[in-house]
Each structure stands twice: as structure tokens, then as C-alpha cells.
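User: Here's a protein and a ligand (zinc ion). What would the complex look like?
Assistant: Let me lay out the input and then the predicted complex.
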Amino acid sequence: MAEKVCRACHRFVKEGVCPVCKGTSFSWTWKGIVIVNDPNNSAIAKHMGITAPGKYCILVK
Ligand SMILES: [Zn+2]
């Protein structure tokens, strides 16, 4: 089953509302997966503006 991602913060979301940014706009078309365990010590997280640990995609269409 395809997973949806939040268009605003790129987080993979199972709920109807994004737990991170409270966004409700999702996309099923995405590319690349990034797992962030420690946003404060992750260069990728800083680059992407990720502030909460979790699973994110790199690109949303
Ligand atoms: Zn979000």
C-alpha cells in the first residue's frame, strides 16, 4: 500500500492530520526516504528544515 506524505514538511503520515505541522495536505507521489533520529545532529534534517524525529521523503510532487 502506498504511503502518503505531508506536502508541507515531507513527513510520512498515517493519520488524517500531520502530527508535526498539523497540515492536512498530503501527496502519494514522492521520492526518496530519510529517517531522522536526531534532528539536532543531522545535516540532512537541518538542510530540510526537519525539527522532529521521524520518517521523511526527500521530494514531494
Ligand atoms: Zn507536516
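Summary: The two ends are 18 Å apart (CA to CA).
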